[in-house]
Amino acid sequence: MDQILTIGLNGLTVASLYFLVASGLTLIFGMMRIVNLAHGAFYLLGGYVAFSVLQGTESWSLGLLAALAAVGAVGVVMHQVLLRAIEHEDMRVALVTIGVSLILADQLLVYYGGVAHSVVPPDFLSGGMELGVAGIVYPRYRIFVLGLAILVGIALWLFISRTRFGMIIRAGVDDRDMVSATGINVRVVFAAVFFIGSALAGLAGAVGAGAFSLAPGTDVEYLLYSLIVVIVGGMGSIPGAAIGALLVGLVSQFALGYTPAVASIVTFALMIGVLAVRPQGLLGRTA
């Protein structure tokens, strides 16, 4: 029983990180119809920015804020400079963002080297916490990651579904010309969405670097799993991303625990099964 509970908690922790990355991707990919394949590199960049700031200032919270702001700014620059003129051409957008991803990953490899780095959490988040169930002592930091993902998910859902700005975003995706006719600058709105989506990837990288290490190849792993989460949950749906992350996190961790030889196959089988039954994803809208 304690093994099952521990694997389940690991699945929730991994699902939390997948959600933080995928929530940004679902805003950009699902709501703006922009295939940002540099999203995994943004995760890696956020982790390294937090690591550098922590090394220079010894402030963990400042590292998180710096990662969020820096990666959000990089995302906006990429959108405005490289993607704005071609954002309706999916193949070009995919190729450009792949190029940005490769350049970022190579530059980070040159600067930080091929060894693994991690962001050491503050003392109040270090150590274990007794859960009072089956004598399990679980890392306090991982519980923090789970709580942060829940808070971010609630905030994003309220932002998209309950605020005027969220209404403008949804309307701009469905009918950009009509929204522009009301005097709203859709370009500015979409730039803000790109900032938020990219910043979430940076935040996930900074937080994830405290639970797992940063190393070359991490960007590809998180891009792949965040795409699976978005596809399973449904593009453009924050609750869908949460459900998708939960399913992918739990399935992947239980598969690693009991059938490690076919763990990746089981995860992809989940995506294939969902697409076979519901092509738009669990909570996605039909085209």
TrEMBL record:
The chain crosses the membrane at residues 12-30, 37-54, 60-81, 93-114, 141-160, 188-212, 224-248, 255-277. Keywords: Amino-acid transport, Cell membrane, Membrane, Transmembrane, Transmembrane helix, Transport. It is a multi-pass membrane protein. It comes from the Bacteria. GO terms for biological process: amino acid transport. Belongs to the binding-protein-dependent transport system permease family. LivHM subfamily. It is found in: Cell membrane. It holds the Pfam family BPD_transp_2. The keyword Electron transport does not apply. GO terms for molecular function: transmembrane transporter activity. Coiled coil: none annotated. GO terms for cellular component: plasma membrane. InterPro entries: ABC_transp_permease, BCAA_transport_permease. This is Branched-chain amino acid ABC transporter permease.
